[in-house]
Amino acid sequence: MSQLTLLSDHNTHFPSTNSALSEPNGLLAIGGDLTSERLISAYQQGIFPWYNDNDPIMWWSPDPRCVFFTDQFHCNKTFRRFLNKKSYQLTINQCFETVISQCAAPRPYEKETWINQDIISAYTELNQRGVAHSIEVWHQEQLIGGLYGLFINNVFCGESMFSLRENASKTALYALCQHLNRHGVDILDCQVPNDHLLSLGAQQLSRDQFLQKITQQRPTKLPVLDWAPQVLCYD
Known about the structure:
The protein is an alpha+beta fold and 235 residues long.
């Protein structure tokens, strides 16, 4: 029988993901902290934090896992026509903290956000350490969308995105898939499936399949991915 693990603040060790609960799907452990060392260790093992503001930190490894294979993003005719207009400009790591703060902003269809100040501070530190990254979408020099996540084990682990204009976050996701694919990166992790992601070509892998994929990655055999602040081009 699966059993929930209580983490210590002094030990960054996680239990095997095979011990994650089936209900709620993927809940593996609670407690601990959001130090960079613990977060990096978690993502290397296919584990991520997700919790409400007044709850203890909860750590998850759901089954199935939602991913994009970076060469299989689905562009319907309407979105392709939109992309061809080149209405938006995209950048990498120009304003990470602004992007994550926008992702944390209240939304009409959600009562609360899981991205609290502790999350913002922890992932901003990861950005400063070159582990977490943002994609920004601009329209006439105004930030109108974006996403952020971590690049670990040669997999981009997407965390959240926001959109203030039509197709802004979708364009960020599409351009990121292209950027990753150009550099030999096969997988963009989206954690849990939803109808929107599946409509764009995301697929579901079993937990075992996903863990096998991320542990098989060999970054030293691939070109180094440049995350320096820069313009992000897309076709």
